[in-house]
Design brief:
The chain is globular. The chain is mostly beta strands. A hairpin with a 4-residue loop joins strand 4 and strand 5. The mean pLDDT is 95. Helix content is 0%, strand content 38%. The strands form 3 sheets. A 4-stranded antiparallel beta sheet has the order 3-6-7-8, with no helix packed on it. Strands 1-2 form a two-stranded antiparallel sheet. Strands 4-5 form a two-stranded antiparallel sheet. The chain has one domain. It is built from no helices and 8 strands.
């Protein structure tokens, strides 16, 4: 993947990669929380963290499975409300991250993520 272990999370179109397992040697892990809010996540979960594998990513892929839904009517990618990613970084810190958008607000190009995050 990358020449350095100095990363925790990467975005490849709609797929979120974690620097651990098949995506990197950094040892990062992640979990996806559902039916919550960014504000309600005040500490890291005690279980559910995964690394990427060749068959399955730590953050599930595909419409409705992970952080987004695909709208067939207008062919858009839209974040699912109430989905928060929690990442255990390569240095052992925990971060919560909510993806807010997938498109550039000026030119509407795809794969231009907007998100908010905070250390836990």
């Amino acid at each position: 993947m990358a020449a350095s272990d100095a990363w925790d999370i990467a975005f490849k179109r709609t797929t979120v990669l974690i620097n651990g397992g098949s995506s990197g040697d950094g040892g990062a892990q992640a979990t996806l929380l559902k039916e919550t809010s960014f504000e309600d996540v005040k500490q890291q979960p005690t279980a559910g963290f995964k690394t990427d594998t060749e068959k399955e990513k730590a953050i599930p892929t595909g419409s409705g499975n992970g952080w987004y839904e695909y709208n067939m009517a207008d062919h858009s990618i839209n974040p699912i409300p109430g989905r928060v990613l929690v990442i255990k970084t390569t240095t052992g810190k925990y971060v919560k991250l909510e993806i807010l958008g997938y498109y550039n607000k000026t030119n509407h190009n795809s794969a231009n993520y907007s998100f908010r995050y905070s250390f836990l």
